[in-house]
Design a protein that fits this description.
This protein is an alpha+beta fold. The protein is built from three helices and four strands; from the N terminus they run βαβββαα.
Length: 132
């Protein structure tokens, strides 16, 4: 996985916790992203206030790109909130995929309607893909 960080210096001490936290989130989710982009921006410059934006973009093969962002007073809080939002989005996407796979497809429902009363269709064997 390639990790691109924008908006913070190369020697910033925040880089190590960012890498650790993203690695832990990826381990928990079981995904294998191809790239992750972390971008920090100061919305109104050196004026101060709650204006640090952290944007996270994760690309996973055969899935749409997932994006989350958060605004906070400093880089660390903005990153923590953005990681939580990204994790919630990944969980939500996994749940949507699971629910879509569980619904009977229209052809299966139509076939069941053509069966005589009381006859149950035989379950079709499901082939499971092995995870590498």
């Amino acid at each position: 996985m390639s990790l691109v960080m924008e908006g913070i210096a190369l020697d910033d001490p925040l880089r190590a916790p960012i890498e650790e936290k993203l690695a832990a989130m990826i381990r928990r989710s079981g995904l294998r992203p191809t790239s992750t982009r972390v971008a920090f921006a100061d919305e109104n410059g050196p004026k101060g206030g709650i204006d640090i934006t952290c944007s996270l973009t994760m690309e996973v093969p055969r899935r749409p790109t997932t994006h989350a962002s958060a605004i906070a007073a400093n880089h660390r809080f903005a990153f923590d909130m953005a990681v939580e939002a990204l994790e919630r989005e990944l969980i939500r996407e996994r749940q949507r995929r699971r629910d879509a796979a569980r619904r009977p497809k229209k052809y299966d429902v139509a076939h069941q309607g053509l069966l005589p009363e009381g006859a149950a269709p035989l379950p079709t064997p499901r082939r499971r893909r092995r995870r590498a």
